[in-house]
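Students often ask why we bother predicting the structure of a whole assembly rather than each chain alone. The short answer is interfaces. A chain on its own may look different once its partners are present, and contacts between molecules only exist in the joint model. In this exercise we take two input lines together and write out one structure for the complete complex. Read the inputs first and try to guess which parts will touch.
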Amino acid sequence: MHVLVIGAAGMIGRKLVARLVADGGLGGRKLGRLSLVDVVAPEMPTGIEGRAWAADLSASGEAACMVGTRPDVIFHLAAIVSGEAEADFDKGYRINLDGTRFLFEAIRQEGLRNPGYAPRVVFTSSIAVFGAPFPEAIGDEFFTTPLTSYGTQKAIGELLLADYSRRGFFDGIGIRLPTICIRPGTPNKAASGFFSSILREPLAGQPAVLPVPDTVMHWHASPRAAVGFLVHAATLDTQPLGARRNLTMPGLAATVAEQIEALRRVAGDKAVALIRREPDETVARIVAGWPRRFEAKRAEALGFKAEKTFDEIIRAHVEDELGGRVA
Amino acid sequence: MHVLVIGAAGMIGRKLVARLVADGGLGGRKLGRLSLVDVVAPEMPTGIEGRAWAADLSASGEAACMVGTRPDVIFHLAAIVSGEAEADFDKGYRINLDGTRFLFEAIRQEGLRNPGYAPRVVFTSSIAVFGAPFPEAIGDEFFTTPLTSYGTQKAIGELLLADYSRRGFFDGIGIRLPTICIRPGTPNKAASGFFSSILREPLAGQPAVLPVPDTVMHWHASPRAAVGFLVHAATLDTQPLGARRNLTMPGLAATVAEQIEALRRVAGDKAVALIRREPDETVARIVAGWPRRFEAKRAEALGFKAEKTFDEIIRAHVEDELGGRVA
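Now the answer. The structure tokens for the assembled complex follow.
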């Protein structure tokens, strides 16, 4: 089978590609060809047929080029992130809305030229489609009233995905990822960055800053779980979804205090001692508007699985990023 | 003040214009200028300054032309209706999605050129943004999972409206109209047409066909109430809306049996006798997927008002369309 990954150079994209290559297939079908695209050329794994190239999904003709070889499964992970989409209104709409629509439309046009072509499309959405105020736990039928342009663009992508799927142009599924924790790499300036850095840095023997109170609760899943969601979304039977093609993924609701206690259990007091409390009103205010907890019943019933404890989330990081060793 | 009505030649558009002219203003401000646009040139009322012209909102430059004179209030009523948007995928997306986005973007661009320009925008959405299965009564926080391309396009318009409002580009409000009953005019082929025709035709002494069982319940408001929603939306304080700019309008949940009993009270047994039952499985199946009842608490709290009984809906029609006389 032929798999196209758009956004293959990003953190999740790279992990997804590694998983596909390691598995050698998807849903019991052999991986015959990989097409990898991002704004910078993704790395092409060895030992597999395919191509990796740089392209801007929102540029004329690029989507048609990606789809012209008729991949069986298309992972659409490409997006301008929240902060940038908020800072650059035009760019956010161009990449996140126009790019997504161009992709969907290119698939439809390919199907009009080659009747019967209707690939599985896995679209990464986000819990940013929701906006405060929230109920204590957000159910599967809660409305999408995003408070960012990024969330708006993702919510529109979900609607398009559902309509194109309903019309039979492709077989789409949208998955709303929790905040990914622990993100590997260096600290970034995202307001959510501290959720990862207060664990990642101490696990590597480095100090970290906690800008919010210990009582802050948020919704998490590991990168490993996120890749699992993508693979499951690409292979599950979409019949039970009906017309409701977008799903909140399961995750783990945890307070910062619970994160820290998990860190203590995995890496000891000396790791916890590396966290410095430095309250930041701005970050605290932003985070206060974010979802705390979901009841992702539909996704769970469909077999999507996330971690059940923060210890598991930390151990996944230690295994996948640190070679099993804690500093 | 300067009011722009896009979609001014349609049934609701014409009634809105007549109301604005009769009132001589909007929210206590004198109506100084009217700009009326539709795909066919709307009729320009006498005695008021302004212009009426034909234009396609989705054609290049047209939205900028409409907005270039900086109207204070913009009513956006233009749309390809449900059946046509389903039959012609490209046309529906071009008019209902691109046209709406071009309008919103033209307003933003006008504001970038003339800082401080941020008009009130009233967008007519629809209960078609919702899709079955439904709870017994649909609350204000129920999610939008449309089952038509039209509903998808309206839901996307809502999201864009909320984001452009949140960013301060305009002061928008989206109102989801109930099924309008009694629609004046001749019977049309819309699946919902019978809700009006089983009342309108007998009131005029003409026979009508009822294709569904008497037990079918649906959500209604009169054209007069719809115009009232629009005027209220144009003048209310949007501050209490926060970022949640789209509202399900109040309406009346009534079964076909209740509609018929109201007809009997207003126009007698001879009117009811003109209704011929002719079951149509296709229509019945379509209607079964439609919302039955809403709890429009937010809109009611904000002062939006619909009819409380079907007798009122019928009397509004007799007064507004039949000069007070029943056949």
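Check your guess against this: DSSP finds twelve helices and 14 strands in chain A.
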